[in-house]
């Protein structure tokens, strides 16, 4: 594994690369980092994986440009692939990372040769209902920016938090973890902005995609409903949907199944190993 850094709009951003072979851009979810991406990507797959830690996530700086957006992160990811000399790549990611990959597939078809969408949280809409709890958490942070415990208690008392406790405790645990971050102000901006955002593409543009696509979904997940994974898979003619064990029930089994699905998908792509590109 190696790392490099790029600067975008005054923000220093971390890039992590691992493996050898054809290029894959594989992005983490909201609040995640390169380690999350690594945990969902198959070892020894014969591919060169690049993950950009998006602004205000992982070790990357938030910078001053606001609002944060999926389009911003997609542009940053493109700059990261350019810095690494990638001329064409498979685009993929988890949750927010899947939204970044989907946007790139639509807006940069010259770069994206195949698509891997793991636990998507968006199709085409902005501010989908399944992301509402992130906005509520951001509001609690803004009300108590210097008092994480008070902010966490405010969020815990909210209707959204109580609902997640009943229907998707794994999602709730992930959200509560944001209150441990040292910079609640930039974290609030991140959560509020991305929860209110979307990939910035239309269903018509998604349906017009003509490239190999893997969509991975699971049940017992309010933020990443299996219905969204099914909808995307139905929109794209060449898409394949794989349902894996719920992350909430067994994280290790879930990640193992995700890695297995991605490994099989990548192995079936028409890649010339010596050239490292898709044909």
UniProtKB/TrEMBL annotation:
InterPro entries: AB_hydrolase_1, AB_hydrolase_fold, Carboxylesterase_BioH. It comes from the Bacteria. Residues 23-245 form the AB hydrolase-1 domain. This is Pimeloyl-ACP methyl ester carboxylesterase. It comes from Aureimonas pseudogalii.
